Amino acid sequence: MNNNEKFMKEALKEAKKAYEKLEVPVGAIIVKDGKIIARAHNLKETKFDTTKHAEILAIQKASKKLKSWRLVDCEMYVTLEPCSMCAGALINSRIKKVYIGANDEKTGAVGSVFNLLEDYTFNHKVEYEKGILKEECEGIIKQFFKDLRKLKK
Q1: 109 phi and psi angles, rounded to 5 deg
Q2: Phi and psi of 128, rounded to 5°?
Q3: pLDDT at 100
Q4: Tens digit of pLDDT for each residue in 98-124?
């Protein structure tokens, strides 16, 4: 297992925490110098707040730890492609690179619906790589919605 897979597995652990809370199972971690400095999972339903996405929460935790909003030389691992809000936060926080598990064909802003990280000229460029443990990341999302449909019957 390479480092990308190792770190994505940590993001998947966060996604499982969200699943247990009946949150859409998305997990994110932020790594600096090979060490995890922040972990988070979706809390939108629990906190009744649309901004409580895993990526935003991880950025907030990393910023607090580093005592800076600039997350220079940090990398994020996230189980689902970021939406436009989260992709914007990646740019604004100066994250160096984001590693993405599954695509989000409905709201993904890193290539699925449009690409905020590539198609526009911003003052900071975020590198990205997609498909890290794609099957596992897709699997947890699909299973969640399958289970949710059963609960609603």
Answers
A1: -110, 20
A2: -150, 155
A3: 98
A4: 999 999 999 999 999 999 999 889 999
Residue 143: other Cβ atoms inside 10 A: 12
CA dist 77 and 52 (Å) reads 17
- The pair of structure tokens assigned to 131 is 């498909």
CB 104 within 8 A of CB 112: yes
Residue type, 106: K
84 three-class SS: helix
| Token pair 């996604």 in the structure block, residue | 15
Q: Give percent helix, percent strand, percent coil of the chain, each to the nearest 5.
A: 40, 20, 40
pLDDT at 153: 67
User: Among all residues, which ones are annotated catalytic?
Assistant: 55
Q: Which residues of the chain have pLDDT under 50?
A: none
CB atoms within 10 A of CB 147: 12
